[in-house]
Amino acid sequence: MKRHLNAVLGKLVATMFVCASTIYPVFSQNVGIGTVSPAEKLHVAGNIKADTVKPSAIKFAANAGNGKILTSDATGNASWQTSTSTGGNVGYGVWGDCATNGNISDYQPVADATGAVSDLFGMSVSIDNNFAIVGAPLAKVGENFFEAGSASIYQYNGNSWVFMQKITDPAGQNGDHFGISVSISGNYAIIGAYQDNVGAINADHGSACVFQYNGSSWVFMQKIVDPGGAANDQFGRSVAISGNHCVIGAHLDDFGAMIDKGSASFFRYNGTNWILTQKSADPAGGGGDKFGTSVSMSGNNVVIGAFEDGIGSAAYQGSVTVYHYNGTTGWDLVQTITDANGAGGDNFGVSVSIAGNYFVVGSYNDDVGANTNQGSAFIYRFDGATWVLMQQLTDPIGVAGDLFGYSVSISGNYVLIGAVNHDTGVITDPGAAILYQRLGIGWQKMQLISDPAGNVNNFFGLSAGISELSKQFIIGATGFNNGTGKAVFGKIN
Predict the structure, then answer these.
(1) Residue 267 main-chain phi, psi, to 5 deg
(2) What is the predicted pLDDT for the residue at 194?
(3) What is the pLDDT of residue 11?
(4) Confidence class of residue 296 from pLDDT cuts 50, 70 and 90?
(5) 416 has pLDDT over 60
(6) How far is residue 399's CA from residue 86's CA, in Å, rounded to a whole number?
(7) What CA dihedral angle connects 192, 160, 104 and 89, to 10 degrees?
(8) Mapping DSSP to helix (H, G, I), strand (E, B) and coil, where does residue 418 land?
(9) pLDDT tens for residues 97-156?
(10) Could you tell me where in the chain the CATH 2.130.10.130 domains are found?
(11) Are 293 and 262 in contact (CB under 8 A)?
(12) Which helix (H) or strand (E) holds 373?
């Protein structure tokens, strides 16, 4: 049997349905449930259960304060306290333990079990659904090959990321830096070795190796080099793969007197080999542009960064160029893009990532207001005819020197942007990344991500990758443990 009770609690009128055997009304002042001596306006002796919690179902006094945390004093009392940090996860347990805001979870750091100091594990990362790859370009291979480099592949088993395989260049040598760049897509992975010597005279010509997943392991397919390359081109500085196509950047490629103009080479898998289909450079570019510093591929579209391209009198402002595969003769230059409000030294194009009709560009030395080198990122959208600026992103709590935009990754409705020098509280340069979500025609900040175990100069955010299909992400932190490095997996809830 239930009884309907209207009780006046000060100026608040509450209407409740309660069991008759456990309610003790004191109409003059307090209401007790499970007690005959209520000490407060509403005194419940026992547990409280809410079967359905709707927005604004429970309200607190206005003096609680926006963003404050309800904390216990260990004597049965609780009070509202201001967070000791506004820099992200500190005090909130965003992932790994409490996940109080529910945006991200499944914190899982990984490192090379046989790694060593200065391997720089985490220098490059890439993730696609249930596979991820992490580069360690300065890793020792065997007993004789110092800084030959390696890459580690992980597989998600439904509960956690499990180390699957370490891969190296079968013909690798000292100083190749295999793993400086990585990309994984479906059953293919490509790894750049930008200081690989090709032939007897082409020191640091560079190369890239393609591996294929055969259902149980990743097997070496082919080493790719630029047939027209030369010493110090650093072919393999950037790599990207999608389906049966890949693109490889050579940011120090020379064109006549234009030293370090840079280039990008397109390859296609013909069922037997990866064959060169096209080599491109910015037709309006010049010496020192470093076209090919960054590359990204999604289906029939490719974005290539030239982060030291001079725009007018603004040296090192940077640019990106978009190519589209025409399905027959090759890749057509569609558009070259710069920051209309950019300035010298912004390094627009230091990082790029494309997915479908959207791509993101990092400009890690962009000044934001009075904050020198705080950094920013730009998202572009294809409107059916051209690529148009959709939004410029900055960290609202960023400061000078954060280098926001050092790494970028986009997948579906999510963007992840690394701020490699972001400070957390009193910790200098542990690094961070910011997760954004697309809402209609705009992008909204979803979460500032920092490593709960972060430390000084970890450089968390140096590399970043995200996969919307699995809602998984990975972030590299090369400075961990004196440069041994690590990578951290997480999940978007």
Answers:
(1) -130, 150
(2) 99
(3) 34
(4) very high
(5) yes
(6) 13
(7) -80
(8) strand
(9) 444 357 999 999 999 999 999 999 999 999 999 999 999 999 999 988 999 999 999 999
(10) 104-492
(11) yes
(12) none
Which long-range contacts link 153-161 to residues 24+ away (Cβ below 8 Å)?
A: 153/184, 153/189, 153/218, 154/110, 154/489, 155/130, 155/131, 156/129, 156/130, 156/131, 156/132, 156/470, 156/472, 160/106, 160/108, 161/108, 161/110, 161/132, 161/489
Which pair of structure tokens corresponds to residue 43? Answer: 């005194």
- Both structure tokens of 123: 């220098």
If you count them, how many residues does the chain have?
Answer: 493
User: Are 376 and 392 in contact, with CB atoms under 8 Å apart?
Assistant: yes
Cα–Cα distance between 261 and 291 in angstroms, integer? 6
Instruction: Specify the pLDDT at position 13.
Output: 36
Token pair belonging to 490: 């997480």
Token readout for 14 is 């509450």
CA 471-425-118 angle, 5° bins? 70
Rounded to 5°, angle at Cα 479 from 478 and 482: 120
What whole-number percentage of the chain has pLDDT above 70? 84
Above 80 in pLDDT, residue 25?
A: no
- CA 493 – CA 472 distance, rounded (Å): 9
Q: Copy the structure tokens of residue 327.
A: 């399905």
CATH assignment of 104-492? 2.130.10.130
The three-state (H, E, C) secondary structure of the chain, written as one string: CEEEEEEEECCEEEEEEEECCCEEECCCCCEEECCCCCCCCEEECCCCCCCCCCCCCCCCCHHHCCCCEEEECCCCCEEEECCCCCCCCCCCCCCCCCCCCCCEEEEEEECCCCCCCCCCECCEEEEECCEEEEEECCCCECCCECCCCEEEEEEECCCCEEEEEEECCCCCCCCCCEEEEEEEECCEEEEEECCCCECCCECCCCEEEEEEECCCCEEEEEEECCCCCCCCCCEEEEEEEECCEEEEEECCCCECCECCCEEEEEEEECCCCEEEEEEECCCCCCCCCCEEEEEEEECCEEEEEECCCCECCECCCCEEEEEEECCCCCEEEEEEECCCCCCCCCCEEEEEEEECCEEEEEECCCCECCECCCCEEEEEEECCCCEEEEEEECCCCCCCCCCEEEEEEEECCEEEEEECCCCECCECCCEEEEEEEEECCEEEEEEEECCCCCCCCCCEEEEEEEECCCCEEEEEECCHHHHCEEEEEEEEC
In the numeric block, the tokens 């100083």 are attached to 175
